[in-house]
Amino acid sequence: MLKNYDELNDIHIDVLREIGNIGAGNAASALATILDERVDISLPRVRITDFDTAINALGGAETMTVGVLVNFSGEANGMIMFLLNMEDAKNIMDILVGDTEDDDNLLSELKLSAIKEIGNILGSSYINSISTLTGLVINISIPYIAIDMAGALMSVPIIEFGSVGDKVMFIEESFSAEENHLKSNIIMFAEIETLKIIMERLGLDI
Amino acid sequence: MSELLVVGISDYKFSRNPNVLVTYALGSCIGICLYDKQMKIGGLSHIMLPESSMFSKNEINRMKFADTAIVDLIQEMRRYGANVSKLTAKIAGGAQMFEVQQGSAIGTIGDRNIKSVKSVLQSLRIPLLAEDTGLNYGRTVYFDLETGIMKVQSLSRNVKEF
């Protein structure tokens, strides 16, 4: 009986990795369409870590990061976060809306909402593929954006999914678009109950 | 030589002058600085959630919750030589990192953490001297045990001292 993330065994982790592969693969093709260039995707990493490691997982706790959060709920509950550093966020926007003047660290409202929309599209593609794969009915929220320390952004899903036990689980992939040297990350957190349901739907005996 | 001691998430540490305690990138979590000015002994707790009561006792990490972490830290500081009746507090954090829809639980966790920390401090009769809480940005907290000053650092904002 699975209760905590650290009880996930190798077979579970293999299945989760495959889910990440399919979800992020779908998201990567959406990103490729948006950018109109090839997007490579890393191997999925299923991370089961303590909170501090999770806070530091994406380039250091205090690194300025742009994060778009999409919540999903219904027969599966969790969060998808699309994360990129300021430089990459600006580059993506230069590609999409042209090179315009910005304050040093701030992105204009227009650019913010464009990035929010990209996060939304990637999150939806990810969740749609899980939904198609499992037949689960999953609703997704509108996208939310924040620009802040990576650790402070990561603390949001950590608080949400770390209330029981001392570990969190997330599936992480990075995207890279070679032509424009863009890097970004997509991560998926889900309730332990949700992981169980997904694995059962895929025929695993939990 | 002063030493920099790092406090993780759902963790606490205590020490004395001239050391400095630090906790990085507080979002909705709260950093609680407790200080005995006379002994120059201080503790810093980084809590994640307001209350342990909704979880069964043998499953919880007491350092994760405001109600259990503060009480335990004070116990440890007492054993270390702090005068508990002289303790004062400064707190930072409890932000709402994403502007989520009204009524969603993630949107209110920062506020609930602030309320819980304040009520625990009040019930223990520890005066709250300063706070830098709420709003929508992350904070790193340095707590200097020589001076008792809590320094709050955020991105694209001036450093604040309390």
SSE topology sketch:
The complex is a heterodimer of chains A (206) and B (162).
Chain A (H helix, E strand, L loop, with lengths): L9 H26 L4 E2 L3 E6 H5 L8 E11 L3 E8 H12 L11 H26 L3 E3 L3 E6 H12 L5 E11 L4 E9 L1 H10 L5
Helix pairs in contact in A: 1-4
Chain B lengths: L3 E3 L4 E6 L3 E7 L3 E7 L4 E7 L18 H15 L7 E6 L11 H19 L4 E6 L5 E6 L5 E4 L6 E2 L1
Parallel strand pairs in B: 1-3, 6-7
Antiparallel strand pairs in B: 2-5, 3-8, 4-5, 4-6, 8-9, 9-10
Helix pairs in contact in B: 1-2
**Strand residues, percent of chain A:** 25-35%
Shape, per Cα inertia axes of chain A? globular
Briefly, what CATH class of chain A? Alpha Beta
Integer average pLDDT of chain B: 94
Report the biggest beta sheet of chain A as strand number plus sense, adding barrel if it closes. 8 strands, antiparallel
Give the structural class of chain B: alpha+beta
- Which value, in Å, is the CA radius of gyration of chain A? 17 Å
Strand order of the largest sheet of chain B: 1-3-8-9-10
Number of helices of chain A: 6
Could you tell me how far the N terminus lies from the C terminus of chain A, measured between alpha carbons in angstroms?
7 Å
**CATH architecture name of chain A:** 3-Layer(aba) Sandwich
Q: Could you explain the architecture of this structure?
A:
The complex is a heterodimer of chains A (206) and B (162). In chain A, strand 3 (64-74) and strand 4 form a beta hairpin. In chain A, strands 1, 2, 3, 4, 5, 6, 7 and 8 form an 8-stranded antiparallel sheet that branches. Helix content of chain A is 44%, strand content 27%. The N and C termini of chain A lie close together (7 Å). Chain A is of the alpha+beta class and 206 residues long. The mean pLDDT of chain A is 89. Chain A has one domain: CheC-like (Chemotaxis protein chec), CATH 3.40.1550. In chain A, helix 1 (10-35) crosses helix 4. Chain B is of the alpha+beta class and 162 residues long. Chain B is built from 2 helices and 10 strands; from the N terminus they run E-E-E-E-E-H-E-H-E-E-E-E. In chain B, a hairpin with a 5-residue loop joins strand 8 and strand 9 (150-153). In chain B, helix 1 packs parallel to helix 2 (105-123). Chain A binds chain B through residues 51-52, 55, 61-62, 64, 67, 69, 71, 105-106, 141-142, 144-146, 148-156, 158-160, 162-166, and chain B through 8-11, 24-29, 48-49, 55, 59, 61, 64, 95, 97-101, 104-106, 109, 136-140, 154-156.
